[in-house]
Amino acid sequence: MPGLTGWHALVLLVIVVLLFGAAKLPGLAKSVGQSMKIFKNEVKAEEKTTPAADGAQLNQTSPEVHAQTDSTNPSAKP
């Protein structure tokens, strides 16, 4: 948003204060902060559990291999 100036930000702040009220803004900011913290933690946890794509090989007993073969072979029984 290259066209956003200080005046635009001030007008947006005034609109937010009018919509939510000054008393609810600290709680709103706290909720957004907690949500971002949870999101970051979940992304980090997902990166740790996901195998690296640089040469990670699936063995023939892994669930991913069975899911791929089951979806390509309709006569396969689960």
Summed up:
By secondary structure, this protein is an all-alpha fold.
Overview of this structure, please?
With 78 residues, the chain is mainly α. It has helices at 6-20, 25-49, 63-72. It is 64% helix and 0% strand.
Output the radius of gyration. Answer: 24 Å
- The mean pLDDT is 76
The poorly predicted ranges are none
Q: In what range is the share of β-strand residues?
A: under 5%
Amino-to-carboxy terminus distance: 52 Å
Shape: elongated
Number of strands: 0
Biggest sheet descriptor? none
Roughly how much helix do the residues carry, as a percent range?
55-70%
Task: Count every helix, treating DSSP H or I runs of 4 or more residues as helices.
Answer: 3
Content-based structural category: mainly alpha
SSE pattern, N- to C-terminal: HHH
Secondary-structure map with pairings?
Layout: H1 6-20, H2 25-49, H3 63-72
Give structural attributes.
78 residues; mainly alpha; 3 helices; 64% helix; 0% strand; elongated
